[in-house]
């Protein structure tokens, strides 16, 4: 259990996580990656502390101070409002069982479209797709709404150490060590899926990247640096245009 002393010593890091997560939520709304007020982004602050967006809060209005901190029993420790029950049921078990610090769940259009095709897979046809080579898991057993934590535990088992989980008939989960890493992956995953859906719409045969070239696309050395620069650039724009995100 996280002690008051531990919380105090981590407060600066937790505040930075609030700023990053609020920025990521607002930018996701700008990009149309959200759906209503129903999807969820979360950060594991400690083994029994989780930062996430409140239910009914539109992502375009996300504020650092308005994000919730909950414990592993779904008690709200900081913030106004409550998380969606599905957010608790999915995110907390997934954090605990996968060890991923950041978990982003959306129903973003193009990735979800692939999750709605029988046997749908992210095909290695574009360099953006290549960054996910060997990093995608696929859950084809739609289980309805996540009404209990057993559903989050099931999803965690399906993820099997990968960064991405396509949820059949549902959406996608993207995980990472930092908010910057995960949000960068979320963005490029949707771009890769968009290219694939457009290519498939032509009815022509897809042109796959040779297998031997894929590891270099996945493991390029500046991936995490680029992710940090992307989120930093997003925050700079929001500082000018929507400074309320940081309040």
Overview of this structure, please?
This protein is of the alpha+beta class and 247 residues long. It has one domain (4-246): L-fuculose-1-phosphate Aldolase, CATH 3.40.225. The chain has nine helices and eight strands. It has helices at 4-9, 11-30, 85-98, 109-115, 127-130, 149-159, 179-201, 214-218, 223-241, and strands at 40-46, 49-52, 68-71, 76-78, 102-106, 136-139, 164-167, 171-176. Helix 2 crosses helix 9 (223-241) and helix 3 (85-98) packs across helix 6 (149-159).
User: Tally of extended strands?
Assistant: 8
Task: Using the coordinates above, name the CATH class.
Answer: Alpha Beta
Distance between the amino and carboxyl termini: 29 Å
Q: SSE string, helix = H, strand = E? A: HHEEEEHEHHEHEEHHH
The spatial strand order of the largest sheet comes to: 4-3-2-1-5-8-7-6
The profile of the biggest β sheet is:
8 strands, mixed
Number of helices: 9
What is the CATH homology-level superfamily? Class II aldolase/adducin N-terminal domain
The tally of domains stands at: 1
Helix fraction, binned, reads 40-55%
CATH fold call: L-fuculose-1-phosphate Aldolase
